[in-house]
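Thread: Newbie trying to understand structure tokens

Hi all, I'm a second-year student working on a class project, and my supervisor (Dr. K.) asked me to get a predicted structure for one chain before our next meeting. I've only ever worked with sequences, so writing a 3D structure as a token string is new to me. If someone could post the tokens and maybe explain what I'm looking at, I'd be very grateful. Here's the chain:
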Amino acid sequence: MNWDDLIRDLEIKNQEALAGGGEERVKKQHALGKLRSRERLEILLDPDSFMELDRLVAPQGSGVGMADKKFPGDGVVGGSGKIHGRPVLVYSQDFTVLGGSMSLSQAKKICKILDLAIKTGTPVIGLNDSGGARIQEGVMSLAGYGEIFLRNTLASGVIPQISIIMGPSAGGAVYSPGLTDFILMAGPTSYMYITGPEVVKEVTGEDVDHRELGGAGVHSRSSGVCDLVGEDDRGILETARRLLTYLPQNNQEDPPVVDLKDPIERSLKDLFRIIPADAKTGYDIKNVIELVFDDGSFLELKPEFAPNMVIGFARLGGYSVGVVANQPLRLSGGIDSKAARKAARFVRFCDAFNIPIITLVDVPGFMPGTAQESEGIIHHGAKLIFAYAEATVPKLTVVVRKAYGGAYIVMGSKHLRGDLNFAYPAAEIAVMGPEAAVNVVFKKELASASDPEKRRGELISEYRDKFASPYQAAELGYIDEVISPDQTRMKLFRGLELLLDKIDKNPKKKHPNPPL
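---
Reply by user tm_fold:
Sure, no problem. This is what the structure looks like when written as tokens:
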């Protein structure tokens, strides 16, 4: 053969691989509002940056009905590319090829991507669209999943791992995303569950469809599995591009600095309007976040799950930071089991990848009641304590209003190695609120008082002045400075600059044993 023949043969093989499962299957994919695997990569990656690997890998299984099903690529497209000019490694399952089902060959392709990501310190993004294990391959398919899970685990805390659910993710397929740092879902077309509707009905008698069982609504609101939801394929891929701008390439690097041209000395006078003087009046902490941090930089995660706790990434003077805040509009900002584990996992991610943590506190305490105790709030609250105490990145905290009881300790306090802790003059830092404290401490006195309500009011005022202000905590050094709200942005920025090169160490150990 001459060179012309060789190149022609190569082109034919490449075209077969690029065709995926064929035109008819592609049309069905489009009819469902879903893009092809390669079309998705074109949106996710910078133009002309994709370099494909293992394009010609074919199924190796010889199971029933597989003799004439030798699609090049075997249901997944993988390789390297760039997002905003920074390298990433990617794989994108192709539902047009045998439903994107996991074979040993497909698993090997994905494992190669993950191995390269670990070796090179490069973030990895997986686009998941698969019906699950390839039944015809039996245990080989299961072995493939296990190899992927191992690499997800080894890569954890080393490189950022992002999973995007763009169709079905069923059975064993859900555990690879479950092991990664962030799960994003394309709202109308994505779902993930351990067992499908048919099995659920057979075993439990429950009659549910795919979306009710494991749709984006379930996982963004109820389970907390999903971090962000997009309206469609394009929307969620663009969100993934934005998410990556806050993250470093790996655990040995710092996040990129992006100057949004927002002056640090910008006025925060609106905070006096946003935050009510009355501690019992609700307000939206997100309005505070939007005002304090660089304009338009806040990217909230899990917004519908445990909304009494707000988490997300933002920028301060261009620096990437993780924000954790109580939300007074929901449960008065109290911490329940869901909120505790939501914040704990986020704090641990930030710590693993050198992202400073800024905490805004307005919390009346942990949520009481039999439901919370039954859910294990002791364990979940301990997760949040563990996360803050273990974190060695810069930790800055602002007590906006209330900080009562154990919840004061948990939310980035000085006692858990908070580096810089500020409070507003109206902040109340105490074991409990003045009203509750007076009822407990002065119960007998109030019972014998000639005018119990008048005396209660006097005692509440005395308690608030002496114990429920930021000044006792400041006298003890637990608050570094009591600041005016309009100083927040400047104080946090100066503190962040001071702490960027801080060194904090934990005792040498194989690994900690948090209350998982």
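A couple of things are worth pointing out once you decode it. The chain has a mean pLDDT of 92. Residues 134 and 412 are 47 Å apart (CA to CA). Feel free to ask follow-ups in this thread.
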